[in-house]
Amino acid sequence: MLRGSFSAIGCLVVLSALTSACSLFTDRGAGIGDDAYDDGSWAEGDDCSTPSPDEADEAAPAPEPTEPAADLPGISVATTDFVTVAGSRKSLRLGFFDDQERPLAVPPDEVGLTTSDAGVARGVLQLNEALDRVTYLGVTAGSPGTATISVSHGGERSDIRVTVLDNVASTMSLSTKRLELKEGQRGSVAALFYHQRGVPLDLPDVEVTSSDPRIVLASRQAPELGGRIEVTARGAGTATVTVAAGGVRDELAVTVAPQPLDSIELLPGPFQLPPDCSTQAWIEFHAPDGARLWVAKDDVTVTSSDPARASAELLTDGDGFVEALEITSDEAGTATLTITARGKRVERQVVVTADGAACSTWGEEEEEEEEEEESELEEAQGELAAGSDPFFYFTYDDSASTAAVELVKHQLRAGEVPPPSLARPWEFLSYERFAPSCARKLGLFDVSMGLLQRASASDAGRDDLLLGIHVAAPFFRKQERDNLVLTLLIDNSGSMMDRTPSVDGARTTRMDVVKHGLKGLLRALTPGDLVNVVTFNSTAQIELEGALIEPVGSGLAEVRRAIDSVEPTGSTALADGISLAYQIARQRYDPGKLNRIVILTDAYANVGEVDPALIADSVVIGDDEGIYFSGLGVGEDFNEAFLNVLTDEGRGAYFSVITPSDAARAFDQRFMALLTVAAREVRFKLSYPRALARAATASEESSTDPEDVQPTNFSFNTTQYFYERFRAPAEAPLSEERFKLTISYKDPVTREPRSEEIEAAVGDLLGQQETNLRAAEAIFLLNQRIGQRMTAPEVDAVLDTYPPRYSAPLFDEYKALIERYDQLAP
What we know:
It contains 17 helices and 45 strands. The strands form 10 sheets. Strands 1, 29, 39, 41, 42, 44 and 45 form a 7-stranded mixed β-sheet that branches. It has a 6-stranded mixed β-sheet with strand order 35-34-33-36-37-38, sandwiched between helices. β27 and β28 form a beta hairpin.
């Protein structure tokens, strides 16, 4: 554990001493983030700060790949060397261009199409019916072998070599080798099968067995649902699940922990039977979390208060677990049946009539039992031992999203009142740029802290202490990053033709925004990168596969052509698009490169399987393979919750893009944040003096129980700024009191747990980062107004505590946004 103390650093008020001392602890190779203003300005600058990433890039230029001058063929296809599997059908982009690189609208009767072996592969021209022109080449794979499909037009010909592989796996792997569950829980893992050439396969016949079905049941989901292995924990213990197909196999070790029995449910009931009648009732056992439990017959007893009138017998499934009760009536009268299991019991009355009615049950409705959710917050952590400092765990930004910031600013500029759902101060603080003051190297991170003390605006005789913490991950220039296998997944459904706001009054569609951003992507690529492009509307298509970026070559031009050719049409088969993107990404997977999928969509799936959990489940498969998933939400009203699910599961980030400038920024300043993760499962813990009371936080999640705070990932080239407000008596002696920040995380590759901590005295922090803190409070106050948690007079009272003529760029911007909100809000 690395331990540091700000009081030992000696950041004194004398400027020369401050500069000298701070330079000892600032790694000028580690940048502060990617969220610069266009002019490179920061909220606060001093001699401790690091040069901006833009300046660093200018200082070390690298050769850029260049596009060739009009030397591409007039017929463009997604790939000229297509590898697929017998029985599959895929659509490849097919475009036609003149000698000036202008796209041509070519009807099908002007295109020649032949195949050298129709038994191996057949091609069919696919049309954009609205424009009556050819846009895709459909390839149907037959028997294994090699065939050439030739497309001709205007004296030119393009040949696509199609290699069809047999559907026989040579290797397989499970996405994890160990699974830990509790009784009654279900889990799933990805079973990935590969041809000997590395092509992923969807095998129809997969055998799944469990070494002990009384502990674990296992089965395979349908291939169209991802082909994952679903595991159900039935009893405490360990079992091995074996997955096999075509001579290859892998094993999953499953450990099941016991769960207490919370309730017994008997359906239906109560019962009314004539004499000499029998009926059955289902029995279900439930854990405190509602999960169904499997209970063995030996653990269950059933008794009758009067066996002469009614009795019962337990019925089991093939593995000996109780699943039903058979009730038999004898003499007329009433008896009570009692079922007992693991200390729990339930009673049901049986009425045996004497009127000779038919043998049937009544009271068919299921008996409802209300379950109250209980807080799991541990009292022990709230009841701190005498003399120890209080603490809390927190996270600030779950997704590196910029959506709330950009939407709020745009809506206020447009004269609209932002909805309370956009009040997310943690996103604003991560979005805006704050300069560090006396940054200290703390393991992976650069950390700086500061305090501002002022009179409380709402509590006479007490002071507010504003704590600011700046955390920065290392900065990588694009020339320093590993090469990239990038699969772009582009939504080209009809909704992408919807208009999106434009600052210049142009008639801009969502697709215009996407294309503008993707053109900027060309500048972010470096020699050695490989690009695939997949689109989805009513179906999913391959626009480009395996375009290698070289210093001099056609790779960039091929990417540009693919981008230019995308046209919106049809509905939104998002699940099909994700599935095809992962097929291509796995096929082109390179362990020596970064492997990433970036989706650009409004995220409204309306065709095919649209269950977000299921689609997110596909994302996890890629993450387990090292293929991470990030996204750009397009338009003001993109389905943010849906995209958040996908990127959270994919260990990536998502940003919003509303205008063309937003899209350009995503593939320029924020591109590295979409690609790379510096630390996984990051959780922050702050210990603070007992003399202080915590008054406000801008965090997304906060608790004294670490299990209540979802850990996050931290990307390279990103920063976070934390704003916390504490309160204390105005005359309290606080100078020697101390704050301590602990950062726990896991190495992104080895998963090795790490922990760093740093502490500082209040007296040493006072006066540091005052400009940052005033800007951060203005940001916090705007979010309080948007979230309707503070009134305009309450916000004004806080701002009135500042010096009358105080001014700083970021503070002034948010003060103006507050004033604008107050003008618009009812």
